[in-house]
Amino acid sequence: MNTHIANRIERRPFASLGHADHGWLNARHHFSFADYHDEDRMNWGAIRVWNDDEIGPRSGFPPHPHADMEIITYVRTGAITHKDSLGNQGRTEAGDVQVMSAGTGIRHAEYNLEDETTTLFQIWVIPRARGGSPSWGAKPFPRGQRSGKLVVLASGYDEDAEALRIRADARLLGGTIRAGDSVTYDSADGRHLYLVPATGRVSIDGETFEARDGAAIIGGAPITITAIEDAEIVLVDSI
């Protein structure tokens, strides 16, 4: 691995992530969260939390408050059912996404009402401004429609008209790549990318990443993601 790659891309192996097993919840933390604290993993750009959660059947998070955070849930397997203090309720299935702008304050509950374990990524992004009315939304994003490419699923930018809206200088992208195929992603100087293969082994500019490893990437030049195995990619691009 050359010096340019080493300085620009940091691999965070799955085994190095913070870990908390609550029985009903088996969680891995890419960034400092709850009882897991690492000064070198407090945030990456505007990305504050990236939790890799396995939620047991018929269990979940009881009502609890949030404020001043953009919370994105990417469901990998199973489904999650959301209820909040605004009266919103919805069930988000594997491959689909929900977003919540906590704004001035909201209480919500997230339950796995299924008979199987639900796995998901929950990602918190720091908003571009504090306050504002809280909101929630969800949208299906069929995996087949993002084969061989990265599709914007949630975004704080007006040009991403088909994506769910968040109030942050960030976007969430997802895609599936067949073994042997590649996709390229470019970003501007000053951006912070965080990429996780939900499934499958990939290489990023020649460095190998296993499924559920994290890649903290400094923006400003294209990256090439090649699937060594069939892979599902989740990427956040933030300030």
From TrEMBL:
**Keywords in UniProt for this one?**
Iron, Metal-binding
Q: How is the cofactor bound?
A: Binds 1 Fe cation per subunit.
Entry keyword annotation includes Iron? yes
Q: Which cofactor does it need?
A: Fe cation
Q: The Quercetin 2,3-dioxygenase C-terminal cupin domain covers which part of the protein?
A: 154-237
Keyword set includes tRNA processing: no
Quote the record's binding site residues for Fe cation: 64, 66, 108, 110
Which residue range or ranges hold the Pirin N-terminal domain? 18-125
Which molecular-function annotations from GO does this UniProt entry contain? metal ion binding
Which stretch is the leader sequence?
none
Q: Which domain of life is it from?
A: Bacteria
Recorded family membership:
Belongs to the pirin family.
Protein name according to UniProt: Pirin family protein
Organism per entry: Sphingobium terrigena
